[in-house]
Amino acid sequence: MIVATRIFFVGGLTSFRALFYWLTPWIYIPTMLIAPLFQILLFAYIGRSAGLASDEFFLIGNALQYASIPCLFAMAQAIGGERFQNTLSAILVSPAPRIPLFFGRSLPVVLNGAFVAAFALLTGSIVLRVHLPASSLAPLLLVVLIAALSCTGLGLVNAALSLRIRENAVLSNVIFGFLLIFTGANVPLDDLPNWMSTLAQGLPFTHAIKAARELVAGASLGDVAGLLGAELLVGAVYGILGYALLRWFETLSRRHASLERS
Amino acid sequence: MQRERWWGTLELLVAAPRHFSLVLFPSTLGLASVGIYNLVATLLWGKFAFGIPLTIEHPLLFALSVLATVLAFAGLGLLFAVSFVRFRAAWVLGNFFEYPVWLICGFLVPLALLPTWVHPIAWVLAPTWGMNAIRESALGGTPVPDLLLCLGLGAAYVVGAVLVTNRVLDDARARGSLSLT
After folding, report:
1. Does the interface ipTM go beyond 0.85?
2. Contact at CB, A22 and B88, closer than 8 angstroms
3. Which of A166, A230, B79, B99 has the smallest count of CB within 10 Å of its CB?
4. Helix (H) or strand (E) holding B74
5. pLDDT tens-digit map of A204-224
6. How far is Cα A116 from Cα A65, in angstroms, rounded to an integer?
7. How far is B45 from B49, CA to CA, in rounded Å?
8. What b/e readout covers B138-159, taking b as 16+ CB neighbours within 10 angstroms?
């Protein structure tokens, strides 16, 4: 139990810090703190130009959806980075229990994703002068945390695919684009074709974004409990699927001796 | 350039007898030309998947405008590349500039909607004029002034990049810090 706890917390934190081995700390500021603000501004101005929805709509949608950048890319790099450093085989040959090994890498990613989204929400509201009611701030933090957790589940699937494909950054970008369109971040779900809005129900962020919009509009945490439950369920399904895929691909990689080649 | 650094070939390129910007420009031009595919693919998706009517009033000027915009992007990319040659995490900044360029250069939002203080920034960015030229040639306006401005600014970026290259590489040689930064 102590070993598993150590692998979960210390291993996860060490792996997360290793993601930034090539960075000086100041790079975090433009990529994680300022870039989401420009995404919010871009879509808010497109919204103004098209007369589609209010600044508040785009602020909430894009601030939450931007959590997908740290969640998807960091989880993919948790595997891809190990391969690049030639340490992947050393990790997978170890007898370490896999649940704390893989999920331990997820915890810092969830916290970072939530921080990035919360910061974007705060700065975006200041720049666009969107009023976020004081009573909604604490529930919004919870929503942001759940959204990051849910997307990290999808990130775990992404990480598993990194065992089979080398250029995972491309896949992460494609998933990011899908989330931008399908989750209702920038287009109201009612305006999407039926198949798209149906598919959106099974994606991270869809329910969290809706919950956040309702909270800012005056709903209580209890009013959006169903949406948050749905978001958690989506994240849990992806998390379990990601773990199952990781184990499956790990076994396949051993069987075909393809760990360093795929 | 990041890959050259990872592969340990950046120093060899810098030490080559040809000017470093001459080595780098074809790379940035090649990467920028991928944008032509993106443009064509997006137009075709719009026309065939979403039924958006697509009429180009001046096809020749349209093609020239696209070419000029690609050249200007290559010049801008070259200027960025040589300016950040000594920074290990420069590629991260490349990603960072994506949304601001979309926003400021009028690709998706009319410049008139943005605050007045943003306009001068847009005017010194060649893609602003390239985008204007593409739109004007498609809609039947007068794209030539925008086209010339785009090409002029693109050329200015290349000249600026050559000057910056000399300065940055001289400094890196003097400090022996090219592979350390």
Report:
1. no
2. yes
3. A166
4. helix B59-83
5. 999 999 999 999 999 999 999
6. 10
7. 5
8. beeeebeebbebbbebbeebbe
